């Protein structure tokens, strides 16, 4: 088989890059949806009055759901392949994300079959093609916000990770992984929402701030909760790389 030609470390890189790229593209595609965390869990919205005049509910982008996996995988790649490895996957993933948006946009431009519209019509007023366009035709602002935030936060994460690792060595995996993620994710959350929905959209500053910090709060908690997963991943990777050596 072709994979027998690759070393274990090369196979590891392909596997980790696959996880990274898949979750990055999925997060970008579903990120257009804003969800109510309280209602999803069966609670009433928080409704806190904020100093700047807005109402704070736990609303966040659906893309935040699996975004922590992207940064966790990035940290693992940084550990085994360095900053060059992270830069490679970041730039490559950004190109694939842009490509995905182009294909999705072209798909929304295609003329739908009449029977497809008819069989999906409900109560005589549901237009599935309109819904398809509204969901998948993400505007220029969301594309620019997504890609710019992705690249900036990924490179920042790699730099902070490298700085912490230079001081702590191979120890304290939790510190370099969590520390780099918490800082880079703050930048990512503010930048992607700001560019996509405030700068190019019609959101207010309070909506931008509230959703951004809700995204960050979720990523903050997941980064901490996933710390044991990092240690398990490192244990399994070390075991895999040492086998038959």
Q: What fraction strand?
A: under 5%
The number of strands is 4
Broad CATH class? Mainly Alpha
Q: Averaged pLDDT, please?
A: 85
**Helix fraction?**
over 70%
Order of helices and strands: HEHEEEHHHHHHH
What is the number of independent domains? 1
Question: Could you say what the CATH topology is called?
Answer: Arp2/3 complex 21 kDa subunit ARPC3
Numbering strands along the chain, what is their spatial order in the largest sheet?
A: 1-4
Query: Gap between N and C termini, in Å?
Result: 20 Å
Biggest sheet architecture: 2 strands, antiparallel
Poorly predicted spans: none
* CATH architecture term: Orthogonal Bundle
Shape: globular
Backbone CA Rg: 20 Å
Query: Which structural class matches the secondary elements?
Result: mainly alpha
Number of helices: 9
Subcellular location: Cell membrane
Pfam families: Vut_1
Protein name: Probable queuosine precursor transporter
GO molecular function: transmembrane transporter activity
Give the topology, please:
Elements: H1 8-30, E1 34-36, H2 37-40, E2 48-49, E3 55-56, E4 59-61, H3 67-109, H4 114-119, H5 128-136, H6 140-168, H7 173-199, H8 205-225, H9 227-242
Antiparallel strand pairs: 1-4, 2-3
Helix pairs in contact: 1-3, 3-5, 3-6, 3-7, 6-7, 7-8, 7-9
Can you walk through the features of this model?
- This is Probable queuosine precursor transporter.
- It is found in: Cell membrane.
- By secondary structure, the protein is mainly α.
- The chain has one domain: Arp2/3 complex 21 kDa subunit ARPC3 (Orthogonal Bundle).
- The protein has helices at 8-30, 37-40, 67-109, 114-119, 128-136, 140-168, 173-199, 205-225, 227-242, and strands at 34-36, 48-49, 55-56, 59-61.
- The strands form 2 sheets. It has a two-stranded antiparallel ribbon. A two-stranded antiparallel sheet has the order 2-3.
